[in-house]
Amino acid sequence: MEGMMKVAVMNGIGKMGFEERPIPQPKEDEVLVKLEYVGICGSDMHYYETGAIGDYVVEPPFVLGHEPGGVVVEVGEKVKHLKKGDRVALEPGKTCGQCEFCKTGRYNLCPDVVFFATPPVDGVFQEYVAHEAGLCFKLPDNVSTMEGALIEPLAVGFHAAIQGDSHAGQTAVVMGAGCIGLVTMMALKARGVSKVYVVDIMAKRLEKAMELGATGVINSMNENAVEKIKELTGGAGCDLAIETAGTEITTRQTIEMVKKGSTIVLVGYSKSGEMTLPMSLALDKELTFKTIFRYRHIYPLAIEAVSAGKVNLKGIVTNVFELDDIQNAMDSSVANKADIVKAVVKIC
Fold first, then answer.
1. Which of 12, 33, 176, 190 is the most exposed place for a label (fewest CB within 10 A)?
2. Angle separating helix axes 225-232 and 248-257, nearest 10 degrees
3. Helical H runs in the chain?
4. Could you give the CA distance from residue 73 to residue 94 in angstroms, rounded to a whole number?
5. Closest to 32 (Cα-Cα) out of 91, 81, 85, 93
6. Cα–Cα dist 15/56, whole Å
7. Distance between the two ends of the chain, CA-based, in angstroms?
8. Is 194 in contact with 170 (CB distance < 8 Å)?
């Protein structure tokens, strides 16, 4: 396909603008996707606010966005499993396929991954993208492209739930009711976890958690989360805790609220990158700590869960912005985190 496309670019901290760029041409193993929705992720907001995450530094003009869903409009000559008109969710990371981690199936740990919206790699707040066909997953008829865009964060939630070996009969607690906390809660429920409680300090997010199927919620601004979990579990504590808030306080609370021999999965990144934790208590309880980095082999599972009605992805969306309104979309997402649980950008 020939022509130009509109691209939203970050021109500096807190500054968005637009450029016209050529529509990319798909290689023989790629498809060209006309994007319809792209989610706004916490990492997008962090780059927008600060210009960097760790060693990844934005050099403007830079394209944000790594949660895309859209429609195939052109197919490379070697692509057999997709055709023009297929609606797809795009997994945003291309890996090398040759390193130790790729060859052992742990491709999310590939040191040479090329990932949308991770500097210097541009993201997809734009009208079209050419992407490796093997990373484009066809959506069932009952799954929209907006839901397709949200398969990316849902994959994080499922990876966390799987790392925690979640299963029926358990009582689990999710710390944090942002997008990742909510999809983690729904992933736990989809895997049959009997009771899932969600802890946060923002009332609207907790209301959303209840709406989406949480067993109960705890506003830790108003009550002691550890004591409440002990009360709800008859003094035993929970079987599994998944920390998505990325704070030292909530991480310490997970150690206190789980029962002996339990597992804690750490998902959220702390702002400083460092924490002081009560490790003597963790040792006394013989706890298992797991961490996650993105996801692997999750997209088909996540798509099936949405198609089967086990996960309500549309329910987490609180705001939809037009691409032309990208400045307001980013400003509002950063400034109004108490009310905007999950925002998506409608590309076309």
1. 12
2. 30
3. 42-50, 100-103, 145-149, 151-163, 179-190, 203-211, 225-232, 248-257, 279-284, 299-307, 326-335
4. 21
5. 85
6. 18
7. 17
8. yes
Q: Which two tokens stand for residue 274?
A: 């460092």
Tokens at 65, concatenated: 């966005």
Q: How far is Cα 298 from Cα 348, in angstroms, rounded to an integer?
A: 27
pTM of model > 0.90: yes
- Average pLDDT for 281-290: 98
Q: Can you give the three-state secondary structure of 230-272, one letter per residue?
A: HHHCCCCCEEEEEECCCCHHHHHHHHHHEEEEEEEEECCCCCC
Compute CA distances 325 → 8, 18, 69, 210, 322, whole Å.
10, 11, 19, 30, 5
Domains annotated on the chain, with CATH: 4-150+317-346 (3.90.180.10), 157-291 (3.40.50.720)
Q: Please say whether the beta carbons of 253 and 266 come within 8 A.
A: no
Give the C-alpha separation, 292 to 272, whole Å: 18
- Specify the pLDDT at position 271: 79
Q: What's the longest Cα–Cα distance across the chain?
A: 65
SS3 341: coil
- Under 8 Å between Cβ of 154 and 183: yes
C-alpha pair distances (Å), 233 with each of 46, 172, 315: 37, 10, 28
Count of CB atoms situated within 10 Å of the CB of 74: 18
| pLDDT, tens digit (0-9, with 9 covering 90-100), for 42-76 | 999 999 999 998 889 999 999 999 999 999 999 99
Alpha-carbon gap, residue 196 to 244, rounded angstroms: 14
Burial of 199 per CB tally in 10 Å (0-12, 13-18, 19+)? buried
| Identity of the amino acid at 48 | Y
- To the nearest 10°, report the CA torsion of 127, 129, 135, 137: 30
Cα separations (Å) of 165 from 77, 152, 174, 193?
41, 20, 14, 10
pLDDT tens column, 164-210: 999 999 999 999 999 999 999 999 999 999 999 999 999 999 999 99
Q: Which helix (H) or strand (E) holds 9?
A: strand 4-12
